[in-house]
Structure formats: structure tokens, C-alpha cells
Amino acid sequence: MGSDTQYQIPAIEFTMNSLEVDRGTVEWYHLCKKVREACENYGCFEIVYGKIPPQSKAEILSASRKLYSLPLESKKNNLTPNRYQGYLGPSVTAPLYEGFGFQEASNYESLRSFTEEIWSHDQFCTFLSMMKQLDELRDMIHLMILDSYGLEKSSNLIMVSKTLLRLQKYTAPPSGEYAMAAPAHTDKNFSTILFDDQVSGLEVQTKDEQWVKLPISPCSFIFAVGDFLMAWSSGRMHSVKHRVMICGEKDRHSLIASALPIEGSVIKAQKELVDEDYPQILKDFDHTEFFNFICSPEGKAIDSQKQVYAFAGIGT
User: How far apart are alpha carbons 260 and 166 in whole angstroms?
Assistant: First the structure.
């Protein structure tokens, strides 16, 4: 069972109006240091970002509720073999969970073809605008991570990535129950940015293996380190384990924007970040082959946090 203790993670305010103007300034490197320390020590931090107002988030969550109010058969019409796209219904391991994935969510035509019969024009425009802003925010944080390690000249980005957007619903459990709505896991990506509708549920595991609640302010987002960013940093950054536990009478809605490698990408530790204190712990690995592994019976039997080590650990 999760703790009732409210967990305090670093809250980092991003006030820059222009990345091109601010990168390289004293203020920029001060923020870089904060981001790096939060990712290494906690695996996540709170983003205070005024460019995306609470009203925009509320409109997106309203559109999500409209999506999930569709009849089950309508939702099932969007089932797809693509793990990133379309409807994902309740399962044996997550009976309270439903998700809608939008691969390349900031791509106008891709998104429009899926949502034009569900959302109004205004809802669609709000959704598209937010996705572009979240892409911009994600890229800025990734640049800060690069700069914090002195890798400014090595690459413009940590690795070329695409955005997977997922609207998620967690159905309220039977009265009085405290139920697991999403099993404990680490994210199989570079990073995740998320927000919710203020219905409590998100919990993270601290480094001393205690489960604690992680509330999200209506004015904030959460940035979480994924397994691939941990591997990229040679274990310096902490891929935070998390889950969703819910109770009460309200369904919970959230949105995640996930930074995934493009097809053919090889995940590898940066040579500048490998040293005596942080020796290379993982072999270079193809992310598609890794996904195939974690979807196999062998991979599914392994704890989520240990899957990447089972697949690519040095000596395995």
C-alpha cells in the first residue's frame, strides 16, 4: 500500500521566452545544474511553466473525457497492432486502465485524421498547440541535460526522438477499495512529461524503496527520466519507478508526452560520461529489439526496472 506522505521533489521554474537568447547565460547554466541534480537524485521534478496555462490543460482533459465517453465498440474501432497508436483497453494486469495513443502527436494530418469526428475544431487546435509546446519544453530540458554535462558541442539533442502522446483514464475502483490502476514500472523511453486532473493516484518509489504519493499542481507538469536516458548517462540519471494507485469515486484522467527513439536508433552510453565512478553498465542496444524483448514471455516475467539490465547488462 502507498504511503499517505506527500513527497517533495524539486520544483524548477522555466521562465525563458526564447531558447536562442537564453542558452549560454548564467541563468541558463544555473537551471541546467538544477535539472541535472533533480534527474540524478530523484529521477523526476516538477516543471513550473507559465507558457501553457491551466485552462489549456483543463480543455485537453475535457476532450479526453469526451473521447472515453464513446461506446466501447467505437473505441475498439481504433485498435491497432502499433503499440504506440490507437486504443488500449483494460487488461488482466491493469483492469482499471484505458489509453489512447497518438504517435507523432504534433503532426497535424496524423492527429486530424483520428480526431476530426470526435473533437470540435477548437479542441483540436488546443490539443495541437499544447503538443507543440510540450515538444519545445522537452527539447529545452534535453538541451539543459546536455549542457549540464559539458556536452554542448556533441549534439543538438540527446538523440533524435519522436513524440508519443497518450491520453489515459483510470476508472474509479469499487467503493472503499484502494486499487492498483497502473502496475509499478519504469518508462521505456528517454523521458516523459505529464499532467493530470488533480485526482490523486501517482506514486513514485524513492531510492530507499519507499512508495510515496506525488501530487501535481494544476499549474505544473512532471518530468520523469526513462530507461533510455539512464542508459545514455551511464547510470548517472535515475529512471524513477512509479505506479498509479486510486480510491474514491472519481475516475482519473492524465496526459503523457513520451520522447521515444526513432526507428533504427541504438541506445548507448556517452563516452564522456563513462568513468571510474560511473563505469559502463549496459551494452549498446537497439531499442526495437529491446521492445520486442519486454513484450516476450521472458521479458514480461522480469521486474520492469530490471528489464533493461536483463537485456543489455554488461556480462549478460
Answer: 13
